[in-house]
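Researcher: Next sequence.
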Amino acid sequence: IIRPEHTFIGVSVATKWKALANIAEKAAIAFHVEERKILQALESRESLGSTGIGNGVAVPHAVVEGLIHPRGLLVRFARPLDFGAVDDVPTDIAFALLFGEANRGEYLNVLAAIARQLQAPGVLAAMRKARTVEELYSDFLADSRL
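Model: Next structure:
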């Protein structure tokens, strides 16, 4: 779902809403879906409640019309931002997950896989120290099925 070319490091945004806009822009280019559709879906989901899962991590996700396969982006922000996370820790890492209507049920499986990877000792610390996209990707996703 997340590929090396869909991994970004040092993304500079000031708010979670600007983060969602930035994610929508990147996803539109990567997945050939209208940016407006992606942004509306992400904003609608976020308005239901924060996708900040804690420990500096957010998982913005949405069903997006026009997507056939689940897709994702991994983003590390230049500076942590307030995502309204459950533990009030500012977010510096986001896993943006986009699903088509037919894949709606897959979200929980993907979220569980992300949670398992993040629980591995040292993974988050390594992701935060990564200097390149390649390091960030390999620190988290190299041995994963995401």
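Model: The helical segments are 16-31, 35-48, 106-119, 123-129, 133-141. Residues 16-31 form the longest helix (16 residues).
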